[in-house]
Amino acid sequence: MSVPPTVEPPAPSPALSPALSVVVPAFDEAEVLPAFAARLRPVLDGLLAEGLGGYEVLVVDDGSTDATPVVLARLRRDWPQLRVVRLRANSGHQAALSAGLARARARGGVVTMDADLQDPPEVLPRLLAAAGRGHDVVYAVREDRSVDSRLKRLTAAAFYRLVRTLGGRAPEQAGDFRFTHRTVVDTVLQLPEAHRVLRLVIPELGFASTTVGYAREARSAGRTKYPLTRMLRLSLDAITGSSTAPLRLASFFGLGGALLTSLLLLYALVSFALGQTVPGWTSTLAVVAGVGTLQLLCLGVLGEYVGRLYVQLQQRPTYLVASDSLEEGP
Ligand code: UDP
Ligand code: MG
Q: Which residues cross the membrane (predicted)?
C-alpha cells in the first residue's frame, strides 16, 4: 500500500468498535455544524434505541480557517460519540473522505455525508435498512435536486454522461452520501491510487449494491466549497482515474490530423506539377492553426496522465492528520 505510515491509522480495537461510523468532511462549516449536529443526533440516538450497536460521528475538519474547530470542540462536550480528526491543511473533499474512512473504527460499516445538511440525516435509517437486507453498498441518489443551481445540475449531468460514455459505472445522481460495509471500506483503503474519486471507484469494485432515493435539500448555511475550478479538478481526476480513453482519443485526433495534412500536401504537389499556383494563404494559415491546436490538445491530454503518474510516483500523502480527538481522550 502506498500511503505512508504517517497517515496510517492505528488498528481499531474490536472491543471499542462501534457498529457504525458516520464520516463527515467539513471545511469552514462553523455556520452549519450546530444545525447539522442537532438534526443528526436524534436520528442516531433513535437508531441506538432500536438496537444499533454503538456509533461514532467522525467529523474530518479539512484544515478549516473559520471557527469550525471551536464549534466542534463545543459540540463534543455533550456529545461523547462525536470525534474530530483535524487535517493539517485543506486537502479537498475526496482526501478528507479518505482520511475519515482510514480512521473510522466501525466494525459494521461507514456512512459518508456532507456537513451542510444537503444530505438529510433522516435518510440514514433507510440506508442502514437497505444494508441490513444484504447490500454492501447503499447509494443515496438525488431524486429531486431542484434546489441546486442550474449550472450545478447541468455540469453534473454532463459529468455523469461523460463518465458513462468512458465506461464508468457510477450510478446516476449518486454523490458521496452512501453506506459502505466494512469489507468495502477495507478494500477501498487498499487501493494505491492517490487521487481516487470514491464515487467512481466504489461502483467499479463490484460489491452488491442498491440505491435509496431522497430529495436534495438546500445548503443550510454558508457557501459552497465547490467552485467551478474544484468541480473541474474532480472531473479530471474522475476521468483520468477511470479511463484511458482520452489518451486513445488523442491518438485518433493525431491520426486524423496527419491524414488531412497528407491529403493537402498531395493537393499542393499536384497543383505544383500542373503548373498551378496554390491559391491564397488562408488555407495555409488554417492548416497551421488546425494542426497546432490538435497538437496542443493531444499534448494536454498526455500531460494530464503524465502529471498523475508523477504524483503517484512521488507517493506523497494526500492529507496529513494533525490531531484526532480519540487520542486526546474525552
Ligand atoms: N469539503 C471539504 N473540503 C473541501 C471542500 C469541501 O471537506 O476542500 C466538504 C464540505 O465542508 C462539505 C462537503 O465537502 O461537507 C461538500 O462540499 P459542498 O457542500 O461545499 O459542495 P456542494 O454540495 O456545493 O457540491
Ligand atoms: Mg453542499
A: 252-274, 286-306
What's the gap in Å between 68 CA and the centre of ligand 1? 13
- Tell me, yes or no, whether 297 and 323 share the same domain: no
Of 225, 231, 235, 318, the residue with max ligand 1 atoms within 8 A of its CB, to mutate for a pocket test, comes to 225
First to last CA, the chain: 32
H or E stretch including 145?
none
The answer to whether residue 127 sits within a structural domain is yes
In a domain, 184, yes or no: yes
Interface ipTM > 0.85: yes
116 lines ligand 1 (CB under 6 A): yes
Q: How many domains does the chain have?
A: 2
Domain housing 63: 14-227+319-328
Per-position DSSP letters for 17-46, written without gaps between them: --SEEEEEEESS-TTTHHHHHHHHHHHHHH
Which pTM was predicted?
A: 0.81
Q: Are residues 257 and 292 in the same domain?
A: yes
Q: Output the residue whose Cα is nearest ligand 1's atom 23.
A: 224
CA of 114 to the centre of ligand 2 (A): 6
